[in-house]
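Beta-galactosidase, pasting as requested.
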Amino acid sequence: MIKHKNIFQKITIALLFSVSVFAQKQARIVEDFNKNWNFKLGDYPEAINANFNASDWRALQLPHDWSIEGAFDKDAKTKQAQGFLPAGKGWYRKVFTIPANWKNKTVSIEFDGVFKNSEVFINGKSLGVRPNGYISFGYDLTQYLNFGKENLIAVKVDNDSQPNSRWYTGSGIYRNVRLVASEKLHVGKWGTFVTTPEVSAAKSKIHLEVTIDNDNASAKEFKLVTSIVNAENKEVANYTSTEKIGAKTSEKKIHDLVLDQPKLWSTENPYLYKVITKVYEKSKLIDNYETPLGFRFFNFDSEKGFSLNGVPTKIYGVCLHHDNGALGAVENIHAVRRKLTLMKEMGANAIRMSHNPHSLEMMQLCDEMGFIVQDEAFDVWKKKKVTNDYHKDWDAWHKQDLEDFIKRDRNHPSVMMWSIGNEIREQFDSTGISITRELAKIVKSLDTTRPVTSALTENVIEKNFIYQSGALDLLGFNYKHEDYKDFPTKFNGQKILASESVSALETRGRYDFPDGIKAWPTKHGAPFDGNADWTVSAYDQVKSYWGATHEENWKTIKKQDFMAGTFIWTGFDYIGEPDPYPFPARSSYFGIVDLAGLPKDVYYMYQSEWSNKTVLHILPHWNWKKDQEVEVWAYYNNADEVELFLNGRSLGKKSKQNDDLHISWRVKFEPGTLKAISRKNGKVVLEKEIRTAGEGSKIDLKADKTLIKNDTYDLVYVTVSMVDKDGNLLPTAMDLVNFEVTGGGKLVGVDNGYQANLDSFKVNSCKLFNGKCVVIIQSNGKNENIQLKATASGLQASTIKVEVN
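Structure tokens follow.
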């Protein structure tokens, strides 16, 4: 009995200790504030009042983008650049209760992004306005709250002045919102800055600056503890100091630590640590704050390009806009992870955040997945690009916006360069000198560990006043790949990167047989011989007049050792900017992957060049007219040659010559099987087959997950394909497919990647485009398995189930 009693006492003590530790970890309370909002389009200034009747307002969960829910309209004020979708004004309201025991805490609200011109009200009081739709911001609510009672928050969003962007922005509270409660003595907003002044595999120094806010009416003495925790959640270094701070003040405290044998962060192994900052008052934990930490060192060199941790590394980058296809601007970490996973599997190791601050989730995932980030602040300065863009807010807001941008993102190890602008108009007049110097100075006042760059279009020195400022550490040039070879002479001693390149045009699954490289159009406003269905061939042979094909650009970049790398325009198609076509085209053609997240053929060219994967990809499909001459391309790597067979007959072996990136055959079509075999030293490396598809037999459903959480956020993407009785894709199928979702999910988007599809992203049906479309299902919070049922005329219904945890 005594023995059993001792065991019981030990268990009890252990449980009490666990509860105590858990309670201590909750010193800072961070609550998801996305749920239970009400929304209505229009202008309702009286909605700030508690007695306002909002019974006819729509209930929803944030993040939310009302533009993506609207209809495409040729006469929309947003115009072609934003995909002909509506903008306007809207209001959000939420009634919530604050616990009475929070009365002695500091309570704030954090918005990751509201597009745009937001004004936030709490219990009828205005907290402030924020014009910039991409900036994260927050407000202290404490003095206006009714503790233990109901409170009303209202948010006005004004995206009515159009056009205000050169791409799709979305409208509304489109990123996450949090409520944060801390003791009066706490770490300030974005209050830590961690740097690694010396890094090696043997030893690294860690320098931590912590901004402490004391909202108390009296001075305080406190203990500040810094812990470095590894990816296995084990503490590997710590430092403690006793500090003092005055009443109603904010002060910076410094901790310096050393870590032996740190694991280095790299694109192949993005090992992450955490800095856990704890504040104790009289041995009581009163605040805790986490900061990401990655140990890495990098260098840009004028002759050798870029290196990471001492290893020469070419930057294989893509530019990304912030929209998530059929979700619009709505930010969802699962959508971002899917996007980045596709880029990683292609071989990309870098992301340029075009042309504005992106979400916190994007930054976190770039850290976790191993992407080098060019973090970009502005698309315009004082000089406009469109009538109502950021130039109107420049004078009043650019300093605070830039400072907040740097403070939020400077702890992310993935960030390796700050871009202060993209194709800025001040490049061409002397004001570019003073503004560049001002912005670079602001950046350097907050972070000296990364170079400052800007994406330039002008490589004639006498015309480029941003370059003449002398304030850039790294020169980024957009396009004009033919001129790169002259840069070491022209920009002697300068570090250089292709900050934006390519702008080639493709539609997934459309094949016009190549007859040379074309520019559509040859110059701005010039007529061109496009396709009647608003498509562009998926062969890499059509480009914008200012750009290059993918192959032209990459052949140039890979030869230039001095070039740190390239950022392709773009990784994905995005809503808006549907060059070269007018309405009904409403999304871009530039992506390596289409808007639905389905790769175009050129994806495999990059995979064969940028990744370690063994690749053999042949195009086009194999459904043509009898005896039609078809050009067959093959992208491959890790092999000496590829042999092509048609119905078992060899059509010959081919190898890439000189700087070729693909090989090709001209083949007279006959139905059957086209087969490619790659070999190295005579041994088979890979085999790929494409078969002629017969009549449609069924709808094939493939989910990217078999299990999702019932948290109301998790997503599953289902690729929908029409196949024949043998499972071959019907590559030209355009059938309408209807969808029904039951159980623990709801349909939140459909898309087929066709750039001129004017059907809504938010309906329960979608036409296949070249055989495929995608359905996006989101958890609805029910703990029930999800079932998707797909039906099409003349075919048996297909279903797929996804388990919900």
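Note for the archive: The longest helix spans residues 2-25.
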